[in-house]
Description:
By secondary structure, this protein is of the alpha/beta class. Helix content is 35%, strand content 16%. It has a 16-stranded parallel β-sheet, with helices on both faces. The longest helix is centred in the first third of the chain and has 27 residues, at 89-115. The radius of gyration is 30 Å and the shape is globular. The relative contact order is 0.05.
Amino acid sequence: MAYAALISLKHTIQRFTDLPITKSPYEELILLESTLRKLDDNCNSNINRRAINELDAQIRDAACKLEVALESYHSDSVEARLQIPLVDLKGVEQEILSFVKSAKNLGDNYNRVLDIPLPIEEEDNAVLPKEDVDCKESTTVYLSDQLEKIIIEFLDLQSRLKIVSIFGMAGIGKTHLASKIYEDGRITGEYDVRVWASIGPKFYIKKILADIAAQVIGNNPRNVYMEEDKNTLADLVYKKLSGQRYFIVLDDIWSTGAWDHLKSLFPIEQNGSRILLTTRLEEVAKYPTSSSNVYQLRFLNNEESWELLWKNVFDNGCFPDELEEAGRKIAENCEGLPLLILAVARILRGHDKTEQFWNEVVNKKTPVFLDAYDSISKQLLLSYEYLPQYLKACFLYIAVFPQYFKVHVAKLINLWAVEDFIEPSQNLEDFAKECLKRLVSLSLIIICSQSISYGIKSCKLHSAYWHVAVKEARKTMFFHVLNKGEDGNHVENHRRLCVQNNILFAIKEVCGSMAATWKTRSLLCTGEDHQYQVPVCLNLMLLKVLDALTIRYYEFPTEVLKLIELRYLALTVHGELPPFLSNLQNIQNLIVRRYHNIKVLTNSSRFPEEKDSVQEHQSIQPSRNFTGLPMEIWDMQELRHLWIMGSKLPDPSDGAKLQNLLTFHADAHCCTKDVFRGISKLKKLRMKIELEPDAVETLNCLEHISILDELESLKCVVANPQLRSQVELSYLPQCLKKLSLNGLGYCWESMSVIGSLPQLEVLKVQCSAFQGPEWKTKVEEFPRLEFLLLEDIDLVHWRTDDDDEWLPCLQRLIIRNCYKLKVIPSQVGYIDVLKTIEVVDCSPSLVASALQIKEKEEEYGNFYLQVMISSSWKL
Length: 875
């Protein structure tokens, strides 16, 4: 975590510009940061990783020590100065001198390690990667569906050289699948030469060339060919392969550079030769071949997982019926990762095969899973160790949430932003999203749900990777997870504490240990929602992040008002917020949830934005007792994200503005003209409307929306729609890119206002957002619309202009629960860029129209349009 510590220190120094003495450490920090980045350029060479890790720890400690001194000196809090060791200006100067000296020495040592690779004798790549050793224990052929698809590629021998890539998470079975293809009897006799080369993360070209030469040329073992120079070996291999139909497996490639070094070995001829690559990295898989020849391995389903487990526990024999129920749960807990399933099976083979013991395994009352995680952690840890420096902290941070937890991306990005371990080269939100996408492409995190525009909405770590991340975070002092009472003894030097079981706050020893530490900067309560108040230790005066959304407070905890360094505050509180909240001038994220809304949120996420709007409008029990927020909230000028569902934001006085506010989630009562004038720079607005009986004036809140002329995303949900009469929509901001309307009851004629928006890309129309039997869309409307969702509306006829240029940018159309809608307009079939039509629980005639569009497209040679039907109607 050296790089993350340096970036955090860099942010801290930049905030303390009033200290001229910080110039010299800043300059050394920049040099040291540049040195650490060199590791990314040399990640595939034979570097002494042990020495690098030792230096990383020293750099991290030096950076953290100086940052603590600067923060302690600069703290304006009297309480903080009573709690933390007193640091005067002389003490800060001494720490700076110490850091500058250490930074120079550590930088020099780091460069020496990078410049002097280990000799080949110490290079630790195995002939086969460790992740597949366990896979080869199993005789079971899993992923057979994907296996057959790939084998077809190798039986077509009439074409020119073809390169096929397989990628996926460590331990998912890439090498297993490659070996089954390599040894398949239908293939072995078709090729003149077959070669298996294991590459590995530490790319040593001469060793790989010697290995390939030994298989292609024969005659001598690999060590003989190691005596030849690289160019001679490459020439020998190329000449031997020329004119031959060859089948080459390049297993476990870690970089595009490795392929660039090897591709010249293989003659390109029209004789059906094939190369099969396996890799963990999507970028590497796609680099040498077309996307049609790239296969991402999936996780096993529950049935496949159970079959793999029992066949390896009982050596393909019969298993006792009484073990099946527990066995299936054990297999399910492996989350479809073959390497983990086989590790668990190996441990179960050595234990009593009794129903009682297996149930204890299911309930995690035995160390079986912990032992299994530990046994495969080295294979998984490689993916982390070879991450770019800027991604390591991002990956580890996801593990602050509990095992199996689905993390909402919006919350994760906001936390990353305030934690100061990332340094964006662009807009912070865009940079964070790119980090997430990169982690997905590196097969390190799993996408749980996507937005309608295919953005990542929620994600998680596989349980095996979660275990690796938690251990690595603890070892590198990045964060510490409190899971049991005795863990309280280990919190002193950790900057981040995660409580994944809120009942721990009731344990005296835990609270005492937390109160004694003053280095903690983040306290994240990520366990299940706790219905009753518990005594949370908030005596952490330099705290920057407090996420206590899962803990109920009857009254606002006044201790929070002393935490003047806070940047992120999330609370569930029943009482009013005090005026002195404005003392927290550094807060960028303020989330206040009223207790009566807890039942609305799912177990997988305690974040106000996670709930689907359709479920939301069906589930929320309206509460009209809105608690007022203090007027002083308008003094909190650093606010960027504000969630205050169930609270009333007062109108600003004297022209007060929150110029930095980007997102605002609130009830319609807060959305007045004066409030909008005070947050005119807003980019994202989510508004919830709870209608009073026989009242429609609340719906008029959208009349003021024109004030927000920079708004890009708007979601408006009526929690308890009363669809008696239609209202008209008059105006929307012209910068809108995403619009979601739910339960508003507009007339379809008002859709022309939306259709005229020049930047609109995503439109969701849900739960009677519009009423009436007919919607007529015109050719000039929706010029940039890419995604359209129609859900639970009473539309009967959807009519269009007879023009081929209608909805020219539409890529995805989803229609759900529109039981009255007769057909999809035939003009949909003329949209060149359309990729997907999804129909869920609609009329038989609408389903038939969707299928007819697909048939006509295929008649014209377009086989790329996907039509997905899910319907309870019988055709």
